[in-house]
UniProtKB/TrEMBL annotation:
It comes from the Bacteria. The keyword Membrane applies. Belongs to the DoxX family. Its main location: membrane. The chain crosses the membrane at residues 48-67, 74-90, 105-126. It is a multi-pass membrane protein. This is Oxidoreductase. It is found in: Cell membrane. Keywords: Cell membrane, Membrane, Transmembrane, Transmembrane helix. The keyword RNA-binding does not apply.
């Protein structure tokens, strides 16, 4: 078996690792806003019914759905859009270049979630058990 064929066999599992890791990293943003864990000083006093608070709710719910691979494509669509809005609203006005405006991470999240819309959840997902992968 060739190296390419071997790597292709692991594609669904590699996609699942990307899905799980990305959702866990993104989940931290929502939890920091909603329950102050992990503690981030800039996010410590976010009112629940503010744009940041509602964003935090969407981040937590969407991240958990992607983490377990349930309604992955729909959740990824919402989170990709949320991250894109965050980038254009809060980062791009400071500079065109993400490295200068501090928006590299949020832009990367947007593109990873955008990819998941099309790629689906990969292995180890509830969508797969439901036949929706």
């Amino acid at each position: 078996m060739s190296l390419i064929a071997t790597l292709d066999n692991f594609r669904p599992k590699a996609l699942a690792v990307l899905r799980i890791a990305s959702s866990l990293f993104f989940l931290q943003h929502g939890l920091a806003k909603l329950i102050r864990f992990p503690y981030v000083e800039q996010l410590a006093n976010v009112p629940l019914l503010s744009q940041f608070g509602i964003g935090g709710i969407i981040e937590v719910v969407g991240s958990v759905l992607i983490l377990i691979g349930l309604y992955t494509r729909a959740a990824a669509f919402v989170l990709s859009g949320l991250a894109a809005v965050a980038y254009f609203q809060f980062h791009s006005p400071h500079s065109f270049f993400p490295i200068l405006n501090g928006g590299e991470l949020v832009a990367l999240f947007s593109f990873v979630f955008f990819y998941l819309i099309f790629a689906g959840p990969g292995a180890w997902s509830l969508d797969g058990r439901r036949g929706e992968a």
